[in-house]
Amino acid sequence: MLMAYQRAKEEIVETSPQTTDAGKEELYLYSLRKMAEDNVENNRTELTHLHNMKSFFYLCGEMIKAEPDQKYSVVIMDIVQFKAVNEFCGRDEGDRLLKFIAECFQWYEDHRKDTYACHVRADIFCLCTQYEDVRELENIVSEIKTKIDEFPFTYKVQPSFGIGISPEREPAVSYLKDCATMAMNSVKGKVYQTYAIFGEKMRRQLMRERQVENDIVGALENGELVLYIQPKVNMSTGRIIGGEALVRWLHPEKGLVSPGEFIPVLEKNGFIINVDEYIWEKVFAYLGKLKEEGRELVPISINVSRLHAYDTGLAENLIRLREKYDVPAQFVPLELTESAFLEDEKGMYQRMENLRSQGFLVSMDDFGTGYSTMNMLKNQTLDEIKIDREFIRDLEKDKSQIIIRNTIAMLQQLGAHIVIEGVETEEQKEFLLGCNCTDVQGFLFYRPMPVEEFDKLLWQQEREPDMAK
């Protein structure tokens, strides 16, 4: 594109010898604009013929620059569980629905002043439009939803909408889209609420997310992200039998940043993969150091994000780290949640089996919190099950005791190693020991700690074999 622009500029200069410098520049800018406008029609989606993101951003940007003092909004829409629509009705019917929705959005581009419609991807559509009052935007949402509700279709379609607005003069379209997306995600799947408007609370959250995105690269380069480990303990002996690797952010100005503030942001923008791999290397390096020193190794599990479901280099990277630091694979169990399999179930199963064949152990984290847990127990070979803390939170209730006791018995029959998360009281400890379950994580024993503190505990344990509590 830049080469084409340069050729256009050279042609203007060559064919307009009498034109002033200012006139040449004006003709050049006109040529660039004309080329961009001509290119707009080549940037429509094949299925719906709406603008794609490239032409949408260009057209809306030009519209806002032409009238910067007007108010602008992006309205975005997503179909809840559209994958189920395709599976239940077939892809042809799903495409028929998408074409109809595209027509609904296109109507506003055709009949509403200063409005453009876009097919973002799959089942996500948006509008950028001028407005005077937010009620206009709410009416657009209501009208589109009514049309979708009335569309003859064999599956109940549930759209969710977000309305992105900004008090700033001449807002960036990408920012308005981010605002609309955040608003939409806040109501997605809620049958009692169809849309949300980007408000001050969301604005503060978005600003925090932008700040995290801006700071995280420097945090990795400057060593601000550090390895923490929460020990796993055998309650019968009090001995540390392993640990779980966690990440903490020691910000130079804010101090210790809560994982709840930055992990969801990194999962959203995909950077969690970089952070995961950064922590993995720290774990392998630490275990390699223990081995070199002739010290006792204990398993330190690492978390594998759901985004790794698409990472074809996952196994290769872990095997490389195993070989680089000469650490037996069984000392680095892989902790996955159910969502890691939901993204690409077949592919993730294959990757896990490949890694198991290389000696790695697979652990299911947060057992019992998802819908497909039992199917996963049938379909996937799991070496360890970590029972979620919610299971033992209400042990004073008889029903809770029945559920946890029988769950533990079932998992023991399946031959999986069981770890209970979130043990915080002596009552929980005694109940679990009564269920013949000894291995736990929880604040009753240890909180997450820097790897240096964990190392001191291991060093002490090696010299004091009897650490029973």
What does this structure look like?
The structure is a single chain. With 469 residues, this protein is an alpha/beta fold. Helices cover 51% and strands 18% of the residues. It has 17 helices and 15 strands. Strands 6, 7, 8, 9, 10, 11, 12, 13, 14 and 15 form a ten-stranded mixed sheet that branches. A hairpin with a 2-residue loop joins strand 2 and strand 3. The protein is elongated and about 80 Å long. 31% of the residues are buried. The N terminus is likely disordered.
Give Rg in angstroms: 28 Å
Report the span from N to C terminus.
70 Å
Report the mean per-residue pLDDT as an integer.
Answer: 85
Helix content: 40-55%
The biggest sheet, with number of strands, parallel, antiparallel or mixed sense and barrel status, is: 10 strands, mixed
Number of helices: 17
Uncertain spans: 1-19, 27-32
Q: What does this entry show, briefly?
A:
The chain is α/β, with parallel strands linked by helices.
List the helices and strands and how they pair.
Elements: H1 2-15, H2 21-40, H3 53-66, E1 71-79, H4 82-89, H5 91-111, E2 115-121, E3 124-131, H6 134-150, E4 159-165, H7 173-185, E5 195-197, H8 200-221, E6 225-234, E7 240-251, E8 255-257, H9 259-269, H10 272-292, E9 300-303, H11 314-325, E10 334-336, H12 338-343, H13 345-357, E11 362-367, H14 373-379, E12 384-387, H15 398-413, E13 417-420, H16 426-434, E14 439-440, E15 449-450, H17 451-463
Parallel strand pairs: 4-5, 7-9, 9-10, 10-11, 11-12, 12-13
Antiparallel strand pairs: 1-3, 1-4, 2-3, 6-7, 6-14, 6-15, 7-8
Helix pairs in contact: 1-2, 2-3, 4-5, 8-9, 10-11, 11-13
